[in-house]
Please model this.
Amino acid sequence: MGDLILVVDDAKFARILEKRTLRNGGYENIIEAATAKEAFELFVEKKPELTLLDITLPDNTDLTLLKKMLAENPKAKIIMNTAIGQELIIMDAMKAGAKDFIVKPFEEKAFLNTVTRVLEAE
Model:
């Protein structure tokens, strides 16, 4: 599938796992970032169809990056990634404009279902 997906996570293992899962689901056009700064630069330059955004990054520990991305592109499709136990911040992320969320560790089928649903939504 040709949709460009930006994977943002400071943990290399998490990025590898997400990219492998996306590829298993037929998504091949994937770029990645480990910091909020790098992620925003790629977001502006490459204009991904979907961004998978970890809530906690070394240079962003709240919803600032999400809000900055949505200010740049209000129609951006952003799925927040969170570890178990961060459910309260997810509600704030959804109110701020995130399209959905994925709790880590995730089950591959549920992850891909969420990605596909968000990409196909208008």
User: Anything to note?
Assistant: The helical segments are 12-24, 36-46, 64-72, 87-96, 108-120. The chain is about 45% helix and 20% strand. The first strand starts at residue 5 and ends at 8.
